[in-house]
Write a structure and sequence with these properties.
The two termini are about 30 Å apart. The longest helix has 29 residues, at about 35-60. This protein is α/β, with parallel strands linked by helices. About 50% of the residues are buried. Helix content is about 45%, strand content about 10%. It has 20 helices and 17 strands. α6 (about 130-140) runs parallel beside α7 (about 155-165), α15 packs antiparallel against α16 and α16 packs across α20 (about 555-580). It is globular and about 75 Å long. The strands form five sheets. It has a five-stranded parallel β-sheet with strand order 4-3-5-6-7, with helices on both faces.
């Protein structure tokens, strides 16, 4: 099934550099504490994205990975910033003032004439992966300055700088695995490791956020090192989790994973443990809400459902493996939702969107942003699958909500193209429904492809009834409305017609109801695009819930499979009507 995607955006490197310089200069105005530390990490993340983008541009121009002077300069800058992060972290955030002026000079000295492709790193944006966790892993690894640290771009370059700073090693080199996502390879100059290859005591640290579905990126680096005559016993891996590579891993990848020594980046809890003398998440949130006697309860991975449902049999499905980390904070009768939304600029942008949603009456009250976590007042109400609105009330509420998103959350960010969406839909239909129905869908797309629509919005992407709370006055509150257009999936930012198509599917709107909704949106709505998106939406949801079911068992698996089957049935009905028409 095709579900995941990676949306890179071309950006002017000079503008990214200027924004980073402004962020660095802003540190001077922040007192010691979690806000300054978070801003410092945000700076590190932003500069990491810039430096990896420049390295990728270098790779594109040369056709091979080398350690060019510009790449060496960028890597040294990242190691210096990583050392600043380490100093703040080790001192319990009791560091104030700006960064070392020499680092600011290095940042200003980067050659930023090129346009670069950049995007939010998945771990920093979605999975509560903190650079600080690699400091801890490196410190207990036993490695020292006699280590060649290799970062896998994109996120691996910055993380490799963290490892190098922690063990006192030279600035890292970086590589970009290429090829099929499940069978990556390297095109790298052997001189990258020439100075280390014939030094028997030298070690090699390969740093990335994986392994993912296949683990092929890490394997590609290890295989390349072996071809340079470097034994597996000298190769150390720094992954972000202790699990094995996923279902698409080859036997060779699994062998690599078994044979190489691994130093797993610590979990969030171990990076900021309650037993530490440094402030922890509980302390950050307590400061934000103004209540020192605060209790945190994790409600990630579907554990939020008992808070809204008395009967477990009525629980909605949950993609537990990809849900954001979230906690319920409580102090007396007061409660807050604490949800990971991303480090640095990613989290700040989502926090601003959450504030706008609240001001418009669609979202909970926003309290603050704490080093990756959005803090909102806990919203009371009953989920809409348990307390449905009248059909007229539903259409009225959705019209108001989607008009607001289309008007106020416009964006130039591109999600999947119409062609990519169609290819996803045909592929998923083939896997779930068979090649004959997939061929029918392919033919349908060939006859109904609209002109590409460029005006996109930060779509909601999840209009399922369990995502909405119905207040005592009948108003709707969207509990999760800032993440899905920037998730780790294929869809991304789309025209608002995607959400209209989603509403038609999720609530089985009649032609008259759909016409009322579309009419309320204004004349800018393209009905042909809504029709095009319907099978895409059905196929995406089919893939999403089918893949989630693969990693579950028991009642949870049955719940996910039932949901996937509902979308499969919807796609089958669509194809039946399409053939009849």
């Amino acid at each position: 099934m095709i579900v995941y995607g990676d949306h890179k955006r071309p950006k002017n490197a000079r503008q990214l550099q200027e924004a980073a310089i402004e962020m660095a200069q802003g540190l001077d105005r922040l007192p010691c504490g979690i806000r300054r530390h978070a801003a410092l990490v945000g700076l590190f993340v932003s500069v990491s994205e810039l430096v990896q983008g420049l390295a990728d541009a270098d790779f594109k121009a040369r056709g091979v990975d080398t350690n060019s002077p510009s790449q060496r300069q960028g890597a040294r800058l990242l190691v210096g910033l990583a050392a600043e992060v380490a100093r703040s972290w080790r001192n319990g955030f009791a560091v104030d003032g700006g960064i070392d002026p020499r680092l600011l000079q290095m940042l200003a000295g980067l050659d930023c004439k090129a346009e670069v492709l950049t995007g939010s790193a998945e771990g920093y944006a979605h999975y509560a992966l903190y650079p600080e966790s690699y400091l801890g892993a490196a410190r207990i690894s036993g490695l020292d300055a006699n280590t060649c640290v290799i970062g896998i771009r994109s996120i691996g370059l910055g993380l490799a700088a963290v490892v190098a700073a922690a063990i006192g090693a030279p600035a890292p080199i970086s590589v970009r695995p290429i090829g099929h996502p499940f069978d990556r390879c390297l095109n790298a100059d052997p001189r990258l490791v020439a100075a280390w290859r014939n030094e028997p005591s030298a070690r090699f640290a390969v740093v990335d956020e994986g392994p993912g579905l296949s683990g092929s990126s890490v394997h590609a680096v290890v295989a390349w090192l072996r071809r340079q005559g470097i034994g597996t016993d000298r190769i150390h891996l720094f992954p972000s989790h202790s699990g094995d590579p996923g279902a698409e891993a080859s036997p060779e990848v699994r062998e690599t994973w078994v044979r190489c020594r691994k130093h797993v980046a610590m979990t969030f809890e171990r990076t900021f443990p309650e037993s530490s003398q440094s402030p922890t998440l509980r302390d950050w949130v307590a400061e934000a809400v103004g209540s020192p006697k605060l209790r945190l309860t994790e409600i990630s991975g579907g554990a939020w459902r008992p808070l809204h449902y008395i009967d477990e049999k009525r629980w909605p499905p949950s993609t537990r493996g990809t849900e954001r980390r979230k906690f319920l904070a409580s102090a007396g009768q007061d409660r807050w939702l604490v949800k990971f939304v991303g480090l640095g600029e990613t989290g700040l942008r989502k926090t601003q969107a959450a504030k706008m949603l609240h001001q418009a009456g669609f979202g909970p009250h926003v309290i603050g942003f704490c080093h990756g976590f959005l803090v909102e007042r806990w919203a009371d109400g009953t989920t809409m699958d348990q307390l449905p609105l009248s059909r007229q009330g539903l259409i009225t509420a959705f019209t108001r909500y989607l008009v607001w998103r289309a008007t106020n959350l416009r964006t130039c960010e591109a999600g999947a193209s119409l062609l990519a969406l169609a290819e996803m839909a045909v592929h998923n239909a083939s896997e779930a429904l068979g090649e004959s129905r997939a061929a029918r869908l392919r033919t349908w797309f060939s006859k109904h492809t609209p002109t590409e629509v460029l005006e996109r919005a930060e779509i909601d992407g999840r209009l399922h009834p369990w995502e909405f709370l119905v207040g005592s006055d009948g108003t709707l509150i969207k509990t999760d409305a800032v993440d899905h257009c920037r998730g780790h999936d294929l869809i991304g930012c789309q025209p608002i017609e995607w959400d209209i198509a989603g509403a038609c599917v999720e609530y089985d709107l009649s032609e008259a109801e759909a016409a009322t909704l579309i009419g309320g949106m204004g004349s800018r709505i393209e009905t042909g695009l809504i029709d095009y998106f319907k099978p895409c939406y059905l196929a995406f949801q089919l893939g999403l819930w089918s893949m989630a079911a693969q990693s579950e068992n028991g009642r949870e698996k049955a719940r996910l499979e039932e949901t996937a089957n509902r979308y499969a049935a919807g796609l089958t009905r669509f194809l039946g009507k399409a053939r009849g028409g």
